[in-house]
Amino acid sequence: MAGTAFDVAMLLPDVDEQLLKAGKITSPDVVIARTDVAIGLRGDGTPDLSTPDTIRTAMLNAKSLRWADTGAALFTVNKILDTLKIRDAVKARHNMVPAPVPLGPGEYEINIYPLSEILPNKNLRNAGPVIPALQVPAVVTAAISANAPNAAAAKALVKFLQGPAIESALKRNGFTR
């Protein structure tokens, strides 16, 4: 939005909508991949995360809670906080400083991020995707600049990204189509 030149941008759909309205891309985004928002645990405690009620209890009992205040997981985070009506109750434990918060035996920290960010993080145990009732998968899109100097090459890149050549890399990194 600030005017930085690009040929193809890999973004989230809400950013694509802004770029389309501003005339910076030629057409609506093309979905490249999806990843569920997942829960990563730090500490040796393992809470039950199988229902909305158990997630509510786990979040209220967690020593600390971590998620980004912007980005792909925020739709799921907001759905969790609003559906479970715990936004105010957990505010003091969100992104506490200093990080990481010391954990005692049986204590745990809950991290809510796209699965693609939890899998490579060696400090977290992947507790799996947030349950479907609270899940808003993160979608990665490709959009072509309205000012791409070589629109044909940009279109070829997007077509490649939609093709089978990257399937194994997507899967390995927590993405699906």
Description:
- It is elongated, with a radius of gyration of 19 Å.
- The chain has 2 domains: 51 residues, no CATH class; 98 residues, D-Maltodextrin-Binding Protein, domain 2 (3-Layer(aba) Sandwich), CATH 3.40.190.
- The chain contains 7 helices and 7 strands, in the order βαββαβααβαββαα.
- The model has no long low-confidence stretch (mean pLDDT 93).
- It is an alpha+beta fold and 177 residues long.
- Helix content is 31%, strand content 22%.
- The strands form 2 sheets. Strands 4-5-3-6 form a 4-stranded mixed beta sheet.
How many H/I helices? 7
Computed structural class: alpha+beta
Helical fraction: 25-40%
Strand content: 15-25%
Mean pLDDT: 93
Placed side by side, the strands forming the largest sheet appear as 4-5-3-6
- Tally the beta strands: 7
The CATH topology of the largest domain, please? D-Maltodextrin-Binding Protein, domain 2
Shape: elongated
- What low-confidence regions span 5 or more consecutive residues with pLDDT below 50? none
N-C termini distance: 27 Å
| Total separate domains | 2
Tell me the series of helices and strands, N- to C-terminal: EHEEHEHHEHEEHH
Largest sheet: 4 strands, mixed
Rounded to an integer, what's the Rg over CA atoms? 19 Å
Multimeric state: single chain
